[in-house]
Amino acid sequence: MIKVGITGGIGSGKSIVTEIFSLCGIPVYIADVESKKLTATSPNIREKLIELFGNDLYDGTTLNKTLLASHIFTDKNKLEAVNHIIHPEVERNFREWVINNKKYPIVAKEAAILFESGLQGLVDKVIMVYTPLETRIQRTMDRDHVSREKVLERIQNQMPDEKKMKLSDFIVVNDGTQSLIEQVLEIIKQLKNE
């Protein structure tokens, strides 16, 4: 089994690349979705987050995502502390997911902060989705209905694209000038031949 990591900055188009993998019959673990589920349901994560931010972080069983975001996107130390709480649980969950999908020759994991979280060691190959910065900013503003400043805050908490590109095995360029589908299908073809 080949485990593929799909990464890229906010607004780069990772979801589209992930969808192409899914349409090709390759199971994909979406780290962001799974980490949100775990943050809402894991007693271990809940206990540690409350210890860090107080009881207001949860309303009954519901995580106050806005409050959490207000803490972590303005303070890099708090973001790192939260990552140290959540990432081990996501890693454990991903390992279980891989075991449950062992019949597939290729599986993928989409993670915006694959390198930042140090979880690239869990995959065999990494695909970086590259999109020009201004395009990423505009997409994220439109998608999340947030200000340019808020998007830039999030981008500053991610590793620069240039560094991610150097650490990746494949680069998918999502700038509207070349076919995303053709690029991804070519990568899948190469992976199947390994």
What is this entry, summarized?
This protein is an alpha/beta fold and 194 residues long. It is 55% helix and 14% strand. It has one domain (2-192): P-loop containing nucleotide triphosphate hydrolases (Rossmann fold).
What does this structure look like?
This protein has 194 residues and is α/β, with parallel strands linked by helices. Helices cover 55% and strands 14% of the residues. It has helices at residues 14-23, 31-41, 43-53, 65-72, 76-100, 133-144, 148-156, 161-167, 180-192, and strands at 2-7, 28-30, 58-59, 62-63, 106-110, 125-130, 170-173.
**Percent range of helical residues:** 40-55%
| Through-space gap between termini | 10 Å
CATH architectural name: 3-Layer(aba) Sandwich
Largest sheet: 5 strands, parallel
Mean pLDDT over the residues: 91
CATH superfamily: P-loop containing nucleotide triphosphate hydrolases
Strand content: 5-15%
Class inferred from helices and paired strands: alpha/beta
The H-and-E topology, N to C, reads as EHEHHEEHHEEHHHEH
How many structural domains are formed by the residues? 1
Low-confidence runs? none
Q: What is the CA-atom radius of gyration, in angstroms? A: 17 Å
Give the number of DSSP strands.
7
